[in-house]
Write a structure and sequence with these properties.
The complex is a heterotrimer.
Chain A: E1 2-14, E2 20-34, E3 39-44, H1 50-57, E4 65-70, E5 73-74, H2 81-87, E6 88-91, H3 104-114, H4 119-132, H5 148-160, E7 166-170, H6 178-195, E8 198-202, E9 214-219, E10 222-227, H7 229-233, H8 236-241, H9 248-258, H10 270-278
Parallel strand pairs in A: 3-8, 3-9, 6-7, 7-8
Antiparallel strand pairs in A: 1-2, 1-4, 4-5, 9-10
Helix pairs in contact in A: 3-4, 3-5, 4-5, 5-6
Chain B: E1 3-12, E2 20-30, E3 35-39, H1 46-53, E4 61-66, E5 69-70, H2 78-84, E6 85-88, H3 101-111, H4 116-129, H5 146-158, E7 164-168, H6 176-193, E8 196-200, H7 204-210, E9 213-218, E10 221-226, H8 228-231, H9 235-240, H10 247-257, H11 269-279
Parallel strand pairs in B: 3-8, 3-9, 6-7, 7-8
Antiparallel strand pairs in B: 1-2, 1-4, 4-5, 9-10
Chain C: H1 16-19, H2 22-36, H3 42-58, H4 63-70, H5 74-87, E1 92-96, E2 99-102, H6 103-129, H7 132-142, H8 153-183, H9 193-199, H10 201-224, H11 243-261
Antiparallel strand pairs in C: 1-2
Helix pairs in contact in C: 2-6, 2-7, 2-11, 3-6, 4-6, 5-6, 7-8, 8-10
Classes of the chains: A alpha/beta, B alpha/beta, C mainly alpha.
Chain lengths: 279, 282, 263
């Protein structure tokens, strides 16, 4: 579905005369292979290149070197642009800055309008998308009166209405309270399970990652670790080096194991911990 | 130095069709040198409440007393209160505006009437307190990294030498290491200077670890005001308010329910590990 | 204070005025504004006023809400009225220092004030009853003929609708920045005009920076959702005239005729 082949991206800063002042490698020869229907999580400290990577997936940025393929389409080719963006939707951090229309349903219809979907079908898609994120009751409301979690769900609906195969979420929960975070994560998990949509979730919250199929850890523009959440979160010390963390329960289990308590390696949730304790 | 809120009531859009009660009968006492966590979902009234504490919002009824003086009295000096009760808003780096870090840091101290020298002393003290290198003092605040900008913004308020420092989600958007750094910083500011810190946060783990007292606000009312251990005993009620309990507290509760002799009120991983080891006699 | 500004906002209720075609409301507003300049006597205001009251009632918008929306322009209104009052020559009825008040001045100021108030009232009725998106398509279609002259009609209309959507957000942001600077001891209320103007710098710079950041993020979000200008774009809510629009146009023509022939 999403393929990165030795992707390098450089931010080049120029002074007023146009001379190159500094070159900053935001991505350094990244290889990535995301299968259709996967739930992928990307972790990394501020400035590690996560957001730059996300923007390559729907061609908001194109590589300085290397190639990004979305279902065999090269993101560098101008004529693929709309097709790629329709297939891979993107949800951003700040809910206020991605809602375009003053009414929920009109915002959800914005994407389909852009790709030239016939009027009747737009209405069907909007109804379907709002239903999927549980926001049907708010379809005629102004986005300004919604909570952060609700706004993000509207943003997700706006993507869904374009019938995407993949949704990239760039720290969608960073500005939300616990309830809003839970709403957003539950929504994307369900879309992944029930609709088979590929999810690429970028986050700073470790507990949101435990359900992922695969986790990538980024640092300094490189993918440093790849694996299932279990494979990643057992490296407690290494993650801390990358300015990350593990869920509290994982840390407790890790430290108990070090003290000789017979627990299996890498426990991810409270439920799991309890199961291990019982047996 | 103390701050007392007495039966505060406040309405949004008073006198219009959109009128709604934002704060209901809030009474609070904020003593010296405490680390207080303030939690509640978005729109619960937290932001409105903290703005009452330095007089940015005036209550529709009720009183605020600063060192026994009513701050709504005509001859009360509001600038004095603003100086003593520092308020760091959410994403404070968005309020930086000067061309250099030092100029931005001088803004507050100069507003409250310090001389250039006094202001500079305060600014240098603040930059040290937030753990930034003095080399950055002449840099443009817009060229710093996100975490550095946030520290500069916090230093801008610290430079006014407040006795109470209120921060609205100071760790929002930072990575785990950045979050821990800011929180440890606040703890050391509190310990070294005896400043009361009020931390508004959406992370239960953070307030559990750092706060000595937690105030829970929901729908404009104070629901709990107690030690973290006591507050997090009410998992079901907190969830109903859109909040959570720290994961480790949840784990310990479940273990205790399952019949293990562990302390169900553990607040940090450290405590949890100790308690479990003790239970297992290891 | 700032959150009280209601100009340009949509007031979501169900009404016949809300259901009117946006083109009707847009052209109707222009017709209404034109009608305001067609009469020369007080009777005209009565007619235009009656029209406004009827439309407001049909639109189910509380008059209080609209009047509150007028508050921010009050200063401009009073300033212009005073200016007209003192600058119109004619039959002198009072003199004080260098100021003279004339009979013509009083009536001119009154007329000007009422016209401006009616104008704002009328155009805010349009924005209260039309969602920004509909307004955009209405304006786009009304000015569609300009495309022949290579005017980017769609893009301009899109800009207007986004501006409308961001007014409340930016006002809130301004409010927040003001408070944040006040928390750092800034004082916007005392001192002379120079000091006050200077005190605005700590608000304006962060506001500009954040507006640019927002604009950048919004542009990115729009691009990510396949926005590429007006070409090949379909509409979720295409415009269609109904019988009620015909009635509205007839009423507007009636208003204009009335204004021309009123004594």
């Amino acid at each position: 579905m999403v393929n990165f082949d030795k992707v390098t991206f450089e931010y080049i800063r120029r002074d007023e005369e146009g001379n190159v002042e500094s070159i900053n490698k935001a991505l350094d020869e990244i290889d990535l292979d995301v299968k259709k229907g996967d739930f992928i999580a990307i972790l990394g400290a501020n400035g590690s290149g996560k957001s730059t990577l996300a923007r390559h997936i729907n061609a908001l940025l194109t590589p300085t070197e290397g190639t990004v393929f979305i279902e065999e389409m090269d993101t560098k080719e101008e004529e693929n642009l709309l097709k790629i963006r329709q297939k891979t939707g993107m949800v951003f951090q700040n809910p206020d800055n991605q809602i375009i229309a003053g009414i929920v349903e009109e915002d959800v219809g914005f994407g389909p309008e852009n790709i030239g979907v016939p009027t009747k079908e737009i209405w069907e898609r909007v109804a379907f998308a709002l239903e999927k994120v549980g926001m049907t009751a708010y379809r005629e409301k102004s986005p300004n009166n919604l909570s952060g979690g609700q706004k993000q769900r509207v943003a997700i609906a706006g993507i869904l209405a374009m019938k995407p195969e993949c949704i990239v979420l760039d720290e969608p929960t960073a500005m939300l309270d616990p309830k809003g975070r839970r709403e957003v994560i539950e929504t994307v998990t369900e879309l992944n399970k029930k609709e088979g949509i590929t999810i690429i979730l970028i986050t700073h919250y470790m507990t949101e990652v435990v359900g992922a199929d695969k986790v990538y850890v980024m640092s300094d523009g490189n993918v440093k670790m790849t694996g299932t959440p279990r494979e990643i979160f057992k490296e407690v010390e290494l993650l801390k080096e990358y300015k990350l963390d593990v869920p509290q329960v994982t840390e407790i289990a890790y430290r108990l194991r070090k003290e000789g308590v017979p627990l299996p390696e890498c426990i991810l949730t409270v439920d799991e911990f309890m199961q291990c304790v019982r047996s | 130095m103390s701050l007392i809120l007495d039966k505060i009531n406040y309405f949004y859009s008073k006198g219009t069709a959109f009128e709604s009660k934002a704060l209901k009968n809030i009474s609070l006492s904020i003593p010296d040198g405490e680390f207080i966590g303030l939690i509640g979902h978005t729109g619960s009234g937290k932001s409105t409440l903290i703005q009452h504490m330095n007089g940015l919002i005036k209550a529709d009824s009720g009183n605020v007393y600063y060192n026994g003086q009513d701050i709504y009295d005509k001859d009360f000096k509001m600038t004095e209160l603003r100086r003593k009760v520092g308020l760091v808003f959410q994403y404070p780096e968005h309020q930086l505006f000067e061309s250099t870090v030092i100029k931005d840091l001088l803004f507050g101290p100069k507003n409250i009437g310090l001389s250039q020298l006094e202001a500079e002393v305060a600014a240098y003290g603040a930059i040290k307190a937030v753990g930034l290198s003095e080399d950055l003092i002449d840099a443009s605040p817009f060229e710093l990294s996100g975490g550095q900008k946030r520290r500069v913004a916090i230093a801008g308020v610290l430079a006014m030498s407040p006795e109470i420092l209120i921060l609205d989600e100071p760790t929002a958007g930072l990575d785990p290491a950045g979050r821990t750094e800011i929180l440890s910083l606040l703890k050391s500011i509190k310990d070294e200077k005896g400043i009361t810190v009020i931390l508004v946060s959406h992370s239960m783990e953070d307030v559990a670890e750092f706060a000595e007292r937690i105030i829970v606000i929901d729908d404009g009312e104070i629901k709990f005001d107690d030690e973290p251990r006591e507050v997090f005993k009410h998992a079901a009620e907190l969830r109903k308010m859109g909040l959570e309990i720290p994961q480790c507290t949840e784990l310990m509760g479940r273990l205790a329910d399952a019949g293990f002799d562990v302390d169900r009120s553990c607040l940090t991983t450290e405590e949890a590990v100790t308690s479990i080891l003790k239970c297992l006699n290891l | 204070m700032l959150r009280d500004i209601t100009i340009g906002q949509y007031y979501p209720v169900e009404s016949v005025i809300h259901r009117l075609d946006p083109r009707t409301k847009f052209l109707g507003t222009i017709m209404f504004v034109v009608s305001l300049f067609l009469f020369k006597t007080f009777w005209g205001f009565l007619l235009a006023g009656a029209f406004l009251v009827t439309v407001t009632a049909l639109a189910h918008i509380p008059p209080k809400f609209i009047l509150k929306g007028l508050r921010p322009i009050l200063f401009l209104l009073i300033f212009m009225m005073i200016f007209t009052l003192l600058m119109t020559p004619g039959e002198v009825i009072g003199e004080w220092w260098i100021f003279t008040v004339t009979k013509e001045g009083i009536s001119a100021a009154l007329f000007m004030g009422l016209r401006l108030a009616f104008l704002v009232f009328g155009s805010s009725l349009m924005t209260y009853t039309t969602t920004p998106n509909k307004l955009t398509s209405g304006m786009e279609s009304c000015f569609g003929f300009l495309k022949i002259f290579k005017v980017p009609v769609h893009e301009l209309a899109m800009m207007v609708s986004i501006a409308l959507r961001f007014i409340p957000i930016l006002l809130e942001e301004t409010n927040k920045i003001m408070k944040a600077q006040q928390a750092r001891g800034a004082d916007f209320e005392s001192g002379g005009p120079v000091k006050r103007a200077k005190a605005m710098v700590p608000i304006l710079i962060p506001l500009f920076v954040s507006s640019f950041r927002r604009a950048g993020e919004l542009a990115e979000a729009m691009e990510a959702r396949c926005y590429h200008g007006g070409n090949g774009r379909t509409k979720m809510k295409p415009l269609k005239y109904h019988l009620r629009d015909l009635i509205a146009y007839l009423a507007l023509i009636g208003l204009i005729v009335g204004c021309v022939f009123i004594p």
